[in-house]
Design goal:
The chain has 68 residues and is mainly α. It has helices at 11-16, 21-32, 43-51. The model has no long low-confidence stretch (mean pLDDT 92). It binds iron/sulfur cluster.
Amino acid sequence: MMECELLENCGFFKKYAAVNEKACANYRETYCEGKGPVRKECRRKQYRDAHSAPPPDDMLPNGKMLFS
Ligand code: SF4
């Protein structure tokens, strides 16, 4: 299955991929690479669809905000 079309430009990974490689790899596998039904539940994607704008970089794929 194809990965999320937004992955290359996803602000969350751009900001945090180097900071916390392991956590980001887990999020990517779970949400972005289509391994399991949870992919459809990416809150970052849902936010973008609802607001026609990208979510804050600090929003996790599960919808929680870092540093809030
Ligand atoms: S976090 Fe969500 S929006 Fe970003 S690349 Fe992964 S599935 Fe797509």
